[in-house]
Design brief:
seven-stranded mixed β-sheet; five-stranded mixed β-sheet; 13 helices; binds adenosine-5'-triphosphate; 30% strand
Protein backbone atom coordinates (compact mmCIF):
# COMPACT_ATOMS: atom_id res chain seq x y z
CA UNK A 1 0.00 0.00 0.00
CA UNK A 2 1.27 3.49 -0.76
CA UNK A 3 1.88 5.85 2.14
CA UNK A 4 -0.76 8.58 2.44
CA UNK A 5 0.57 11.90 1.15
CA UNK A 6 1.99 14.13 3.87
CA UNK A 7 2.64 17.86 3.84
CA UNK A 8 6.23 18.79 4.46
CA UNK A 9 5.59 21.25 7.28
CA UNK A 10 3.64 20.91 10.51
CA UNK A 11 1.00 23.49 11.31
CA UNK A 12 2.68 24.41 14.63
CA UNK A 13 5.78 25.58 12.79
CA UNK A 14 3.74 27.84 10.52
CA UNK A 15 1.64 29.22 13.37
CA UNK A 16 4.78 29.97 15.33
CA UNK A 17 6.51 31.65 12.37
CA UNK A 18 3.40 33.73 11.64
CA UNK A 19 3.15 34.80 15.28
CA UNK A 20 6.87 35.50 15.75
CA UNK A 21 7.35 37.53 12.59
CA UNK A 22 4.07 39.44 12.59
CA UNK A 23 2.13 37.70 9.83
CA UNK A 24 -0.89 36.64 11.91
CA UNK A 25 -2.08 37.22 15.50
CA UNK A 26 -5.12 35.81 17.31
CA UNK A 27 -7.93 38.39 17.24
CA UNK A 28 -8.36 40.50 20.42
CA UNK A 29 -5.48 38.62 21.97
CA UNK A 30 -5.22 40.80 25.08
CA UNK A 31 -8.72 39.61 26.03
CA UNK A 32 -7.80 35.98 25.50
CA UNK A 33 -8.59 35.91 21.77
CA UNK A 34 -11.86 35.39 19.93
CA UNK A 35 -12.45 31.89 18.65
CA UNK A 36 -11.59 31.46 14.96
CA UNK A 37 -10.91 35.10 14.21
CA UNK A 38 -7.46 36.29 13.20
CA UNK A 39 -5.63 39.58 12.70
CA UNK A 40 -3.13 39.97 9.89
CA UNK A 41 -0.02 41.81 11.12
CA UNK A 42 2.42 44.07 9.23
CA UNK A 43 3.81 41.28 7.01
CA UNK A 44 0.54 39.36 6.78
CA UNK A 45 -1.33 42.33 5.44
CA UNK A 46 1.25 42.73 2.66
CA UNK A 47 1.15 39.06 1.66
CA UNK A 48 -2.63 39.04 1.74
CA UNK A 49 -2.86 42.17 -0.39
CA UNK A 50 -0.34 40.71 -2.86
CA UNK A 51 -2.48 37.56 -3.20
CA UNK A 52 -5.59 39.61 -3.91
CA UNK A 53 -3.70 41.85 -6.35
CA UNK A 54 -2.28 38.82 -8.20
CA UNK A 55 -5.78 37.36 -8.50
CA UNK A 56 -7.25 40.66 -9.68
CA UNK A 57 -4.48 41.19 -12.24
CA UNK A 58 -4.93 37.73 -13.75
CA UNK A 59 -8.72 37.43 -13.47
CA UNK A 60 -9.83 41.02 -14.21
CA UNK A 61 -7.10 43.34 -15.47
CA UNK A 62 -5.68 40.99 -18.08
CA UNK A 63 -8.99 39.71 -19.44
CA UNK A 64 -11.43 41.25 -21.90
CA UNK A 65 -14.32 39.18 -20.60
CA UNK A 66 -14.31 40.16 -16.92
CA UNK A 67 -15.40 43.19 -14.91
CA UNK A 68 -15.01 43.89 -11.20
CA UNK A 69 -17.51 44.67 -8.48
CA UNK A 70 -17.46 45.60 -4.80
CA UNK A 71 -20.95 45.01 -3.46
CA UNK A 72 -21.99 45.67 0.13
CA UNK A 73 -21.77 43.04 2.85
CA UNK A 74 -25.28 43.78 4.08
CA UNK A 75 -27.93 42.95 1.49
CA UNK A 76 -31.71 42.99 1.35
CA UNK A 77 -32.85 40.01 3.47
CA UNK A 78 -34.93 38.68 0.57
CA UNK A 79 -31.66 37.99 -1.25
CA UNK A 80 -30.99 35.19 1.23
CA UNK A 81 -34.49 33.79 0.96
CA UNK A 82 -34.23 33.62 -2.83
CA UNK A 83 -30.73 32.13 -2.72
CA UNK A 84 -31.85 29.32 -0.40
CA UNK A 85 -29.56 30.36 2.46
CA UNK A 86 -32.32 31.11 5.00
CA UNK A 87 -33.80 27.68 4.38
CA UNK A 88 -30.83 25.55 3.60
CA UNK A 89 -27.45 27.02 4.59
CA UNK A 90 -26.99 24.84 7.61
CA UNK A 91 -24.86 22.10 9.09
CA UNK A 92 -26.15 19.18 11.19
CA UNK A 93 -25.10 19.91 14.76
CA UNK A 94 -24.77 17.37 17.60
CA UNK A 95 -23.82 17.99 21.21
CA UNK A 96 -22.04 15.65 23.62
CA UNK A 97 -24.27 14.90 26.59
CA UNK A 98 -21.23 14.60 28.90
CA UNK A 99 -18.70 17.28 27.95
CA UNK A 100 -21.14 19.48 25.96
CA UNK A 101 -18.75 20.00 23.06
CA UNK A 102 -20.52 20.49 19.73
CA UNK A 103 -19.68 18.75 16.49
CA UNK A 104 -20.79 18.55 12.87
CA UNK A 105 -22.35 15.11 12.66
CA UNK A 106 -21.44 14.76 8.96
CA UNK A 107 -17.75 15.04 9.90
CA UNK A 108 -17.77 12.40 12.65
CA UNK A 109 -16.52 8.89 12.09
CA UNK A 110 -18.56 7.31 14.90
CA UNK A 111 -21.71 8.12 16.92
CA UNK A 112 -19.66 8.91 20.03
CA UNK A 113 -18.05 12.21 21.11
CA UNK A 114 -14.48 12.37 19.68
CA UNK A 115 -13.31 14.20 22.83
CA UNK A 116 -14.64 12.03 25.68
CA UNK A 117 -16.48 9.16 24.02
CA UNK A 118 -19.78 10.39 25.48
CA UNK A 119 -23.24 9.98 23.97
CA UNK A 120 -24.33 12.55 21.37
CA UNK A 121 -27.68 14.31 20.93
CA UNK A 122 -29.77 13.86 17.77
CA UNK A 123 -28.53 16.17 14.98
CA UNK A 124 -30.32 19.48 14.53
CA UNK A 125 -29.81 21.87 11.65
CA UNK A 126 -27.86 24.96 12.54
CA UNK A 127 -27.96 27.95 10.16
CA UNK A 128 -24.49 29.34 9.50
CA UNK A 129 -25.51 32.91 8.72
CA UNK A 130 -24.74 35.63 11.27
CA UNK A 131 -27.87 37.62 12.00
CA UNK A 132 -28.02 41.23 13.08
CA UNK A 133 -30.49 44.12 13.05
CA UNK A 134 -30.59 47.18 10.85
CA UNK A 135 -31.76 50.46 12.39
CA UNK A 136 -32.79 51.20 15.96
CA UNK A 137 -35.53 48.58 16.35
CA UNK A 138 -34.52 45.00 17.00
CA UNK A 139 -37.41 42.89 15.73
CA UNK A 140 -38.15 40.42 12.93
CA UNK A 141 -38.67 43.19 10.38
CA UNK A 142 -35.18 44.61 10.88
CA UNK A 143 -33.19 41.37 10.58
CA UNK A 144 -30.26 41.48 8.16
CA UNK A 145 -27.47 38.98 7.62
CA UNK A 146 -23.72 39.28 7.25
CA UNK A 147 -23.17 37.72 3.83
CA UNK A 148 -21.86 34.15 3.92
CA UNK A 149 -20.50 34.47 0.36
CA UNK A 150 -19.83 37.37 -2.01
CA UNK A 151 -21.60 35.64 -4.92
CA UNK A 152 -25.11 37.01 -4.33
CA UNK A 153 -23.89 40.61 -4.79
CA UNK A 154 -22.88 39.66 -8.32
CA UNK A 155 -26.16 37.93 -9.21
CA UNK A 156 -28.32 40.83 -8.04
CA UNK A 157 -26.16 43.28 -10.03
CA UNK A 158 -26.33 41.23 -13.24
CA UNK A 159 -28.63 43.69 -14.99
CA UNK A 160 -26.71 46.76 -13.79
CA UNK A 161 -23.49 45.34 -15.17
CA UNK A 162 -25.11 44.29 -18.43
CA UNK A 163 -26.60 47.77 -18.95
CA UNK A 164 -23.50 49.73 -18.02
CA UNK A 165 -20.71 47.70 -19.61
CA UNK A 166 -22.34 46.37 -22.79
CA UNK A 167 -20.62 43.02 -22.18
CA UNK A 168 -21.77 40.14 -24.40
CA UNK A 169 -21.80 36.46 -23.38
CA UNK A 170 -19.63 34.86 -22.25
CA UNK A 171 -18.44 37.30 -19.58
CA UNK A 172 -17.80 37.33 -15.88
CA UNK A 173 -18.07 39.47 -12.77
CA UNK A 174 -15.30 39.23 -10.18
CA UNK A 175 -15.30 40.31 -6.58
CA UNK A 176 -13.02 40.12 -3.56
CA UNK A 177 -14.40 40.67 -0.09
CA UNK A 178 -15.22 39.52 3.40
CA UNK A 179 -17.70 36.76 4.15
CA UNK A 180 -18.94 35.46 7.48
CA UNK A 181 -20.06 32.00 8.57
CA UNK A 182 -20.94 30.90 12.06
CA UNK A 183 -19.06 27.63 11.51
CA UNK A 184 -19.81 24.80 13.95
CA UNK A 185 -16.34 23.35 13.92
CA UNK A 186 -13.44 25.67 13.30
CA UNK A 187 -9.72 25.31 13.72
CA UNK A 188 -6.67 24.47 11.69
CA UNK A 189 -5.46 28.06 12.04
CA UNK A 190 -6.80 30.29 9.24
CA UNK A 191 -8.14 27.34 7.22
CA UNK A 192 -11.64 27.66 8.66
CA UNK A 193 -12.55 30.86 10.42
CA UNK A 194 -15.80 32.68 11.07
CA UNK A 195 -14.74 35.81 9.22
CA UNK A 196 -12.76 35.30 6.04
CA UNK A 197 -12.17 36.72 2.58
CA UNK A 198 -13.23 35.27 -0.74
CA UNK A 199 -12.17 35.87 -4.34
CA UNK A 200 -15.13 34.87 -6.46
CA UNK A 201 -16.05 34.91 -10.13
CA UNK A 202 -19.51 34.47 -11.60
CA UNK A 203 -18.99 33.64 -15.27
CA UNK A 204 -22.12 33.88 -17.43
CA UNK A 205 -22.30 31.58 -20.47
CA UNK A 206 -24.80 30.33 -23.07
CA UNK A 207 -26.61 27.17 -21.89
CA UNK A 208 -25.07 24.27 -23.75
CA UNK A 209 -21.56 25.73 -23.52
CA UNK A 210 -21.48 25.38 -19.72
CA UNK A 211 -19.51 22.11 -19.56
CA UNK A 212 -16.82 23.54 -21.84
CA UNK A 213 -16.49 26.65 -19.64
CA UNK A 214 -16.55 24.59 -16.46
CA UNK A 215 -13.56 22.57 -17.73
CA UNK A 216 -11.87 25.77 -18.87
CA UNK A 217 -12.15 27.39 -15.41
CA UNK A 218 -10.93 24.30 -13.57
CA UNK A 219 -7.78 24.34 -15.65
CA UNK A 220 -7.38 28.11 -15.53
CA UNK A 221 -7.57 28.16 -11.74
CA UNK A 222 -5.13 25.29 -11.25
CA UNK A 223 -2.73 27.13 -13.55
CA UNK A 224 -3.11 30.27 -11.45
CA UNK A 225 -1.97 28.47 -8.29
CA UNK A 226 0.89 26.83 -10.13
CA UNK A 227 1.95 30.16 -11.62
CA UNK A 228 2.36 31.51 -8.09
CA UNK A 229 4.70 28.68 -7.20
CA UNK A 230 2.39 26.07 -5.65
CA UNK A 231 3.70 22.63 -6.58
CA UNK A 232 1.40 20.60 -8.81
CA UNK A 233 1.84 17.48 -6.68
CA UNK A 234 0.27 19.35 -3.76
CA UNK A 235 -2.90 20.13 -5.75
CA UNK A 236 -5.62 17.62 -6.49
CA UNK A 237 -8.95 17.94 -8.24
CA UNK A 238 -11.89 16.34 -6.46
CA UNK A 239 -15.11 16.15 -8.50
CA UNK A 240 -18.22 16.02 -6.28
CA UNK A 241 -20.45 12.96 -6.34
CA UNK A 242 -24.05 13.61 -7.46
CA UNK A 243 -25.39 13.13 -3.89
CA UNK A 244 -23.10 15.73 -2.33
CA UNK A 245 -23.85 18.52 -4.83
CA UNK A 246 -25.29 21.70 -3.28
CA UNK A 247 -28.93 22.43 -4.14
CA UNK A 248 -27.95 24.98 -6.81
CA UNK A 249 -25.17 23.01 -8.50
CA UNK A 250 -25.24 20.91 -11.66
CA UNK A 251 -21.58 19.99 -11.18
CA UNK A 252 -18.80 20.92 -8.79
CA UNK A 253 -15.11 20.21 -8.43
CA UNK A 254 -12.91 21.20 -5.52
CA UNK A 255 -9.29 22.11 -5.97
CA UNK A 256 -7.79 20.46 -2.90
CA UNK A 257 -4.40 21.26 -1.40
CA UNK A 258 -2.22 19.04 0.74
CA UNK A 259 -2.40 21.09 3.97
CA UNK A 260 -0.56 19.92 7.13
CA UNK A 261 -3.78 18.25 8.34
CA UNK A 262 -4.27 16.48 4.98
CA UNK A 263 -6.01 17.14 1.67
CA UNK A 264 -8.65 19.86 2.00
CA UNK A 265 -10.56 22.33 -0.15
CA UNK A 266 -8.72 25.38 -1.40
CA UNK A 267 -11.27 26.46 -4.00
CA UNK A 268 -14.62 25.22 -5.27
CA UNK A 269 -15.67 25.48 -8.92
CA UNK A 270 -19.38 25.01 -9.55
CA UNK A 271 -21.68 24.92 -12.53
CA UNK A 272 -24.70 26.71 -11.00
CA UNK A 273 -26.84 26.46 -14.15
CA UNK A 274 -29.55 29.15 -14.27
CA UNK A 275 -30.55 28.64 -10.61
CA UNK A 276 -29.50 32.04 -9.27
CA UNK A 277 -30.83 34.29 -12.03
CA UNK A 278 -34.14 32.38 -12.13
CA UNK A 279 -34.51 32.57 -8.33
CA UNK A 280 -33.75 36.29 -8.11
CA UNK A 281 -35.93 37.06 -11.14
CA UNK A 282 -38.94 35.35 -9.63
CA UNK A 283 -38.33 36.75 -6.14
CA UNK A 284 -37.73 40.36 -7.26
CA UNK A 285 -40.10 40.42 -10.21
CA UNK A 286 -37.29 41.74 -12.45
CA UNK A 287 -36.56 39.90 -15.67
CA UNK A 288 -32.93 38.86 -15.25
CA UNK A 289 -32.26 37.64 -18.74
CA UNK A 290 -29.99 38.38 -21.67
CA UNK A 291 -31.06 39.31 -25.19
CA UNK A 292 -29.19 37.06 -27.57
CA UNK A 293 -28.82 39.02 -30.78
CA UNK A 294 -27.81 35.97 -32.81
CA UNK A 295 -30.82 33.89 -31.81
CA UNK A 296 -33.08 36.98 -31.45
CA UNK A 297 -34.44 35.76 -28.13
CA UNK A 298 -34.08 36.27 -24.40
CA UNK A 299 -32.08 33.59 -22.64
CA UNK A 300 -31.11 33.01 -19.03
CA UNK A 301 -27.36 32.42 -18.94
CA UNK A 302 -25.80 29.56 -17.02
CA UNK A 303 -23.17 30.43 -14.43
CA UNK A 304 -19.77 28.92 -13.77
CA UNK A 305 -18.42 29.94 -10.36
CA UNK A 306 -14.76 29.61 -9.35
CA UNK A 307 -14.80 30.50 -5.65
CA UNK A 308 -11.49 30.80 -3.82
CA UNK A 309 -10.58 31.75 -0.26
CA UNK A 310 -7.91 34.39 0.35
CA UNK A 311 -7.02 32.97 3.76
CA UNK A 312 -6.77 29.38 2.54
CA UNK A 313 -4.61 30.53 -0.38
CA UNK A 314 -2.43 32.36 2.16
CA UNK A 315 -2.06 29.16 4.19
CA UNK A 316 -1.37 27.00 1.13
CA UNK A 317 1.27 29.44 -0.12
CA UNK A 318 3.01 29.45 3.26
CA UNK A 319 2.96 25.63 3.45
CA UNK A 320 4.40 25.38 -0.04
CA UNK A 321 7.01 28.09 0.45
CA UNK A 322 8.29 26.89 3.84
CA UNK A 323 11.71 25.31 3.79
CA UNK A 324 14.67 24.61 6.04
CA UNK A 325 18.20 24.30 4.71
CA UNK A 326 21.72 25.43 5.36
CA UNK A 327 23.19 28.69 4.13
CA UNK A 328 26.52 30.34 4.75
CA UNK A 329 27.32 27.57 7.25
CA UNK A 330 24.14 27.97 9.32
CA UNK A 331 20.75 26.33 9.47
CA UNK A 332 18.09 28.61 8.10
CA UNK A 333 14.32 28.75 7.73
CA UNK A 334 13.15 30.31 4.51
CA UNK A 335 10.02 31.05 2.56
CA UNK A 336 10.40 30.53 -1.19
CA UNK A 337 7.61 33.01 -1.89
CA UNK A 338 7.01 34.11 -5.48
CA UNK A 339 8.42 37.66 -5.86
CA UNK A 340 4.93 38.99 -6.67
CA UNK A 341 3.74 37.74 -3.29
CA UNK A 342 6.72 38.41 -1.00
CA UNK A 343 5.70 41.04 1.57
CA UNK A 344 9.08 42.79 1.26
CA UNK A 345 10.72 42.76 -2.17
CA UNK A 346 14.22 43.78 -1.07
CA UNK A 347 16.05 44.73 2.12
CA UNK A 348 18.85 47.27 2.27
CA UNK A 349 21.58 46.16 4.68
CA UNK A 350 24.47 48.56 5.42
CA UNK A 351 27.51 46.67 6.65
CA UNK A 352 28.07 49.18 9.43
CA UNK A 353 26.13 51.84 11.31
CA UNK A 354 28.85 54.43 10.73
CA UNK A 355 27.20 57.67 9.75
CA UNK A 356 28.68 58.15 6.27
CA UNK A 357 27.77 54.58 5.25
CA UNK A 358 24.36 54.71 6.92
CA UNK A 359 23.32 57.92 5.16
CA UNK A 360 24.51 56.52 1.83
CA UNK A 361 22.48 53.31 2.40
CA UNK A 362 19.43 55.31 3.50
CA UNK A 363 19.47 57.21 0.22
CA UNK A 364 19.37 53.91 -1.69
CA UNK A 365 16.56 52.71 0.58
CA UNK A 366 14.55 55.92 0.07
CA UNK A 367 14.88 55.56 -3.69
CA UNK A 368 13.87 51.88 -3.84
CA UNK A 369 10.83 52.28 -1.60
CA UNK A 370 9.31 54.75 -4.06
CA UNK A 371 8.58 51.66 -6.12
CA UNK A 372 8.37 48.66 -3.74
CA UNK A 373 7.89 47.64 -0.13
CA UNK A 374 11.53 47.62 0.93
CA UNK A 375 13.08 46.87 4.32
CA UNK A 376 16.08 48.41 6.08
CA UNK A 377 18.00 46.51 8.72
CA UNK A 378 21.25 47.51 10.41
CA UNK A 379 20.97 45.47 13.62
CA UNK A 380 23.35 42.58 14.42
CA UNK A 381 25.65 40.63 12.11
CA UNK A 382 25.03 40.46 8.37
CA UNK A 383 24.42 36.69 8.68
CA UNK A 384 21.63 37.24 11.23
CA UNK A 385 20.11 39.87 8.99
CA UNK A 386 20.13 37.56 5.97
CA UNK A 387 18.41 34.88 8.12
CA UNK A 388 15.70 37.33 9.18
CA UNK A 389 14.96 38.25 5.57
CA UNK A 390 15.03 34.61 4.39
CA UNK A 391 12.49 33.71 7.06
CA UNK A 392 9.96 36.24 5.77
CA UNK A 393 10.59 35.43 2.11
CA UNK A 394 12.40 38.61 0.98
CA UNK A 395 13.76 37.63 -2.46
CA UNK A 396 16.73 40.03 -2.48
CA UNK A 397 19.07 41.68 0.00
CA UNK A 398 21.06 44.72 -1.09
CA UNK A 399 24.29 44.96 0.88
CA UNK A 400 26.02 48.31 1.10
CA UNK A 401 29.69 48.16 2.16
CA UNK A 402 32.53 50.65 2.47
CA UNK A 403 33.67 49.92 -1.07
CA UNK A 404 30.24 51.02 -2.25
CA UNK A 405 31.18 54.56 -1.24
CA UNK A 406 34.11 54.40 -3.66
CA UNK A 407 32.92 52.30 -6.60
CA UNK A 408 29.20 53.18 -6.36
CA UNK A 409 28.26 49.53 -6.52
CA UNK A 410 26.25 47.33 -4.16
CA UNK A 411 25.82 43.58 -3.78
CA UNK A 412 22.54 41.85 -4.48
CA UNK A 413 22.15 38.54 -2.65
CA UNK A 414 19.47 36.13 -3.85
CA UNK A 415 17.35 34.31 -1.27
CA UNK A 416 17.00 30.97 -3.07
CA UNK A 417 20.30 30.49 -4.91
CA UNK A 418 22.40 32.48 -2.41
CA UNK A 419 24.14 33.89 -5.49
CA UNK A 420 25.66 37.32 -5.01
CA UNK A 421 26.18 39.82 -7.78
CA UNK A 422 27.62 43.28 -7.69
CA UNK A 423 25.76 45.99 -9.58
CA UNK A 424 26.27 49.71 -10.13
CA UNK A 425 23.82 51.68 -8.00
CA UNK A 426 22.64 53.39 -11.20
CA UNK A 427 21.34 50.08 -12.49
CA UNK A 428 20.11 48.69 -9.16
CA UNK A 429 16.46 49.56 -9.75
CA UNK A 430 16.44 48.17 -13.29
CA UNK A 431 18.18 45.00 -12.14
CA UNK A 432 15.76 44.44 -9.27
CA UNK A 433 12.82 45.19 -11.55
CA UNK A 434 14.00 42.54 -14.02
CA UNK A 435 14.80 39.99 -11.34
CA UNK A 436 11.49 40.50 -9.55
CA UNK A 437 9.86 39.91 -12.94
CA UNK A 438 11.65 36.55 -13.16
CA UNK A 439 14.45 37.47 -15.56
CA UNK A 440 17.76 35.83 -14.79
CA UNK A 441 20.39 38.56 -14.95
CA UNK A 442 23.93 38.70 -13.77
CA UNK A 443 26.54 41.38 -13.76
CA UNK A 444 30.17 41.10 -14.67
CA UNK A 445 32.26 42.24 -11.71
CA UNK A 446 34.47 44.50 -13.77
CA UNK A 447 32.77 47.22 -15.71
CA UNK A 448 29.44 46.40 -14.04
CA UNK A 449 27.69 45.57 -17.31
CA UNK A 450 24.41 43.71 -16.90
CA UNK A 451 24.09 40.54 -18.91
CA UNK A 452 21.01 38.59 -19.65
CA UNK A 453 21.35 34.81 -19.73
P1 LIG B 1 -15.88 23.76 3.40
O1 LIG B 1 -16.48 22.53 2.78
O2 LIG B 1 -14.41 23.66 3.68
O3 LIG B 1 -16.69 24.32 4.53
P2 LIG B 1 -17.29 25.18 1.44
O4 LIG B 1 -17.45 24.14 0.37
O5 LIG B 1 -18.42 25.49 2.34
O6 LIG B 1 -15.97 24.89 2.29
P3 LIG B 1 -17.52 27.30 -0.41
O7 LIG B 1 -18.87 27.67 0.03
O8 LIG B 1 -17.35 26.56 -1.69
O9 LIG B 1 -16.79 26.51 0.77
O10 LIG B 1 -16.62 28.61 -0.39
C1 LIG B 1 -15.64 28.87 -1.36
C2 LIG B 1 -14.27 29.07 -0.74
O11 LIG B 1 -14.32 30.00 0.33
C3 LIG B 1 -13.69 27.80 -0.11
O12 LIG B 1 -13.07 26.99 -1.09
C4 LIG B 1 -12.68 28.38 0.86
O13 LIG B 1 -11.47 28.71 0.21
C5 LIG B 1 -13.36 29.65 1.32
N1 LIG B 1 -14.02 29.41 2.61
C6 LIG B 1 -15.26 28.92 2.82
N2 LIG B 1 -15.54 28.85 4.14
C7 LIG B 1 -14.44 29.31 4.78
C8 LIG B 1 -14.09 29.49 6.16
N3 LIG B 1 -14.96 29.22 7.13
N4 LIG B 1 -12.87 29.98 6.47
C9 LIG B 1 -11.98 30.28 5.49
N5 LIG B 1 -12.26 30.14 4.17
C10 LIG B 1 -13.45 29.66 3.82
Amino acid sequence: MTEPAKAKVEMEKLVSLCRRRGFIFPSSEIYGGLSSCWDYGPLGVELKRNIKDAWWRAMVQQRDDMVGLDSSILMHPRTWEASGHVQGFSDPLVECKSCHLRWRSDELESDKCPECGGELTEPRLFNLMFKTFMGPVEDDTSVVYLRPETAQGMFVNFENILNTTRKRLPFGIAQVGKSFRNEVTTGNFIFRSREFEQMEIEFFVRPGTDQKWFDYWVEERINWYEGLGIKRENLKLRPHEKEELAHYARACSDINYLFPMGWAELEGIANRGDFDLVQHASSSGKGLSYYDEEAKEHIVPYIIEPSAGVDRTFLALLCDAYDEDEAEGEKRVLLHLHPDLAPIKAAVLPLSRKEHLASFAREIYADLRKRWMVGYDDAQSIGRRYRRQDEIGTPFCVTVDFESLEDKQVTIRERDSLRQIRVPIDSLKATLQAKLGGEDLFVLPDGGKIWKK
